[in-house]
């Protein structure tokens, strides 16, 4: 057992050195050699959906009634949902594929944990870096929404911290799940889950179109909570139910951090 490992045995020091910023800094340095075209593609995808469906198909659909009984344009209805999708996509990309490569092929975490960093430092650092990508996508999309006049209330400014919460939730849970995956074939399951969640989480139409038993399934999905939270903020439809959406993501973050930390410790320290 090395001296560094010996120091970590037992207590908080076994998990945390208080320096997740070193992992984030390493991510920024590595990003310099990345293809920015790939990074920007994650931003343009929801913009294309908004242009084609919100502005194009929206001309044929007209107004849509929200779950609170308020009529809004179709573009204003789907824009906050696509904002949530933008945050999810940015966070998931970095916390799954990038983490999978570092974990199984780059062997970067072994090197990080051979230093004073603990598994919680690594987990939180990677999640924070993924969160920043989700924030980048979502902030750009918020600007597009503002230009098109789709932020219908002053409370839309609160969508930015809400986006951070959503990105944090997906990044932490995404990294936790990825830590258990061994092959590229396993990674295909991520898209298998994300695509139907994107299509059916009341993104393009109200949840009330489903039978009640289907609604219960949809309301258990994390993206639906993000969609409802951002839709309420951008349209100015505030309610106590928003606290449940926030609590859902707080629990999601806690679960992701706990499982990721335990998994990294089991893989490289125990």
Automatic annotation (TrEMBL):
It is a multi-pass membrane protein. It is found in: Cell membrane; Membrane. It holds the Pfam family ABC2_membrane. InterPro entries: ABC2_TM, ABC2_TM_bact-type, ABC_2_transport, Nod_factor_ABC_transporter. Coiled coil: none annotated. Residues 37-267 form the ABC transmembrane type-2 domain. Keywords: Antibiotic resistance, Cell membrane, Membrane, Transmembrane, Transmembrane helix, Transport. The chain crosses the membrane at residues 35-52, 72-92, 152-177, 189-207, 242-260. The keyword Membrane applies. The keyword Hydrolase does not apply. Belongs to the ABC-2 integral membrane protein family. This is Transport permease protein.
